[in-house]
């Protein structure tokens, strides 16, 4: 990952901080100061040592010892206080930023079209938002302050190295230079290619691992062995080979050099000492020379610690990329544009005018040039082969998605010019993937009309043929769905969703009868509920069995995204086209069923 990307991820995250951005910078600055102050007591101790050695054995002469002691004490106290202040600043800014990420993410999601939630499970979106918020908290509250502190420590150590005796400082620094050089050879030149290969193999393995976990149910259901996951096995072998190659050919020598010189930086001091020692002895400053040497011997060890800490802390900046990756899925969600001057539909008719629609990322259109009219109070059935585009057409009416070209009109007004609230008030929809909230049945139904009384909710549940569901639940309509074993079957969920739509009593109903298929015991009940829901309404019904559409005012046969034919049941039967063939197939199937039962 390039530096500029890291930077931009971090600056993108900081753009969520608002006025708390300065607090992050202040916290980071204070953390660096605290780290430098934290080193001061050690220098004081060394100064005490130096004074004592220079007056030895007449220790009474060392006048500054107590002063240095107090200095060490106050540096430590002030350092700790500043460190606390730094953490207060970074934590406050981190919490505010995380909270802004959550708020802005939610605001963005509120504006996304409903179809976006079909393609992105809401649990997954919530995980992304929570993950991004908590990673941001860790990054801003801890990592940035640590990185700044470590850098300050490293730089001040470098400066100190040259303050007392530049020759010994240069010797210690030589260790650091060799170490950094060794690390760079690991990442540069032809080794960069090997490292990229190794990282790519790691990515492939992790993706194959995810596929493997996803596929476990298939393995179980079809009694396959894990050996069917050849790709995963291959990916692991490939990774292990690349990892071994990387370790043996790239890391071995430079890493050995790096560890040797950083851990044994002291060794570089020895020749300098041997060179300078005799001169110091002659000039009478040997005691001072020994204390300087003690200083460098101790601080040379700090270099290796500081280098290791910098590498560790820098890896923390990867958090910025991960967090930003998560936030971007949400922030890049499409937005449903609201009309500037909303208009009211004149009636409850629905019209498709030359509608074409292509799903984002798809090459072939799901609908091409679809036009039809549903007059108020009429029922239009959409039929045709699976994948033909029925659900897509129905989902354009409540603006799950916006058309790619053409117009969808309600009461003569383009749905894009109707405010979301008016549109949602006018349309009740029941699709296959009904969503029930993890709350009571009562609240689930009342969601359609928050001011509804208990009686109204009960009436809707009755009309949706839900009474048998409620009777068997421990707390009737107050039973929480999805808790303590109270799970509803697909057909039962469909009926609760129908009750919700019935309570809403919207003049336009868009519904998919599919679930009735999946749950034969519920079929008769669901048909009854459908009739109750659609009485006197403009209805667009996606029909999967022809028996349910014979009474529709108009049947539209959609195939490969286009209207193939349209008319009443009788008209279409006479046409001798796709519908007639579907009708014959349907009758044959019914006859087989009767014969089989006979
Ligand atoms: P039907 O309801 O007639 O079975 P759909 O409207 O569900 O057909 O699908 C029409 C076409 O659009 C199909 O080719 C399908 O694969 C594609 N499609 C449906 N939903 C999506 C989606 N969310 N993203 C991308 N393509 C989709």
Could you provide a short overview of the structure?
The chain contains 21 helices and ten strands.
Overview of this structure, please?
The protein is an alpha/beta fold. The protein has two domains: 3-331, ABC transporter type 1, transmembrane domain (ABC transporter transmembrane region fold), CATH 1.20.1560.10; 350-591, 3-Layer(aba) Sandwich (Rossmann fold). 65% of the residues lie in helices and 9% in strands. The protein contains 21 helices and ten strands. The chain has helices at 3-14, 21-55, 65-111, 114-119, 122-164, 166-187, 189-221, 230-263, 266-283, 286-315, 318-331, 390-396, 420-426, 441-446, 454-463, 467-472, 490-504, 514-518, 523-534, 569-575, 578-597, and strands spanning 350-357, 367-374, 379-383, 405-410, 413-414, 427-430, 508-512, 538-542, 554-559, 562-567. A six-stranded mixed beta sheet has the order 6-7-8-3-9-10, with helices on both faces. Strands 2-1-4-5 form a four-stranded antiparallel beta sheet, covered by helices on one side. A hairpin with a 2-residue loop joins strand 4 and strand 5 (413-414). Helix 17 runs parallel beside helix 19 (523-534). The longest helix has 47 residues, at 65-111. The protein is elongated. It starts with a helix and ends with a helix. The model has no long low-confidence stretch (mean pLDDT 86). Adenosine-5'-diphosphate (ADP) binds at residues 118-119, 359, 362, 366, 386-392.
């Amino acid at each position: 990952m390039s530096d500029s990307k890291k930077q931009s991820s971090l600056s993108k995250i900081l753009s969520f901080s608002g006025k708390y951005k300065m607090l992050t910078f202040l916290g980071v600055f204070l953390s660096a100061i605290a780290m430098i102050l934290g080193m001061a007591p050690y220098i004081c101790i060394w100064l005490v040592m130096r004074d004592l050695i220079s007056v030895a054995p007449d220790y009474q002469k060392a006048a500054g010892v107590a002063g240095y002691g107090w200095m060490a004490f106050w540096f430590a106290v002030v350092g700790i206080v500043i460190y606390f202040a730094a953490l207060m600043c970074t934590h406050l800014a981190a919490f505010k930023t995380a909270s802004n990420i959550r708020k802005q993410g939610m605001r963005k999601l509120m504006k996304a079209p409903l179809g976006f939630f079909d393609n992105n499970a809401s649990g997954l979106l919530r995980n992304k938002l929570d993950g991004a918020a908590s990673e941001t908290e860790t990054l801003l509250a801890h990592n940035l302050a640590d990185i700044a502190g470590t850098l300050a420590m490293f730089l001040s150590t470098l400066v100190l190295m040259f303050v007392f005796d530049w020759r010994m400082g240069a010797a210690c620094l030589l260790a650091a230079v060799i170490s950094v050089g060794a690390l760079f050879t690991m990442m540069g030149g032809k080794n960069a290619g090997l490292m990229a290969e190794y990282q790519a193999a790691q990515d492939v393995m992790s993706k194959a691992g995810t596929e493997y976990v996803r596929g476990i149910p298939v393995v179980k259901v079809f009694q396959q062995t894990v050996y069917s996951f050849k790709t995963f096995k291959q990916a692991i072998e490939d990774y292990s080979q690349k990892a071994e190659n990387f370790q043996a050919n790239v890391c071995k020598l430079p890493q050995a050099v790096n560890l040797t010189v950083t851990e044994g930086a002291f060794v570089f001091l020895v020749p300098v000492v041997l060179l300078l020692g005799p001169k110091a002895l002659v000039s009478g400053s040997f005691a001072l020379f020994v204390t300087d040497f003690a200083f460098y011997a101790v601080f040379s060890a700090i270099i290796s610690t500081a280098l290791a800490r910098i590498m560790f802390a820098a890896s923390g900046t990867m958090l910025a990329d991960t967090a930003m990756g998560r936030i971007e899925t949400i922030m890049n969600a499409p937005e449903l544009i609201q009309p500037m001057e909303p208009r009211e539909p004149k009636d409850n008719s629905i019209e498709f005018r030359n509608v074409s629609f292509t799903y984002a990322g798809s090459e072939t259109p799901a609908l091409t040039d679809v036009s039809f009219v549903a007059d108020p109070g009429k029922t239009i059935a959409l039929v045709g082969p699976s994948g033909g585009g029925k659900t897509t057409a129905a989902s354009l009416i409540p603006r799950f998605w916006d058309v790619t070209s053409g117009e969808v009109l309600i009461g003569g007004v383009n749905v894009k010019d109707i405010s979301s609230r008016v549109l949602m008030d006018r349309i009740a929809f029941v699709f296959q993937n009904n969503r029930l909230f993890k709350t009571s049945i009562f609240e689930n139904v009342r969601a359609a009309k928050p001011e509804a009384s208990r009686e109204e909710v009960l009436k809707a549940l009755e009309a949706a043929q839900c009474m048998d569901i409620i009777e068997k639940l421990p707390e009737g309509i107050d039973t929480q769905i999805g808790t303590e074993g109270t799970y509803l079957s697909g057909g039962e969920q469909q009926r609760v969703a129908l009750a919700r739509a019935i309570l809403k009593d919207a003049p336009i109903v868009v519904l998919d009868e599919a679930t009735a298929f999946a749950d034969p015991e519920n079929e008769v009940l669901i048909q009854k509920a459908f009739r109750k829901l659609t009485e006197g309404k403009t209805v667009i019904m996606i029909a999967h069995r022809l028996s349910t559409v014979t009474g529709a005012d108009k049947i539209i046969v959609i195939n490969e995204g286009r209207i193939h034919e349209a008319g009443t049941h009788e008209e279409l039967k006479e046409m001798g086209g796709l519908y007639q063939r579907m009708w014959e197939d349907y009758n044959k199937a019914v006859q087989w069923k009767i014969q089989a039962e006979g």
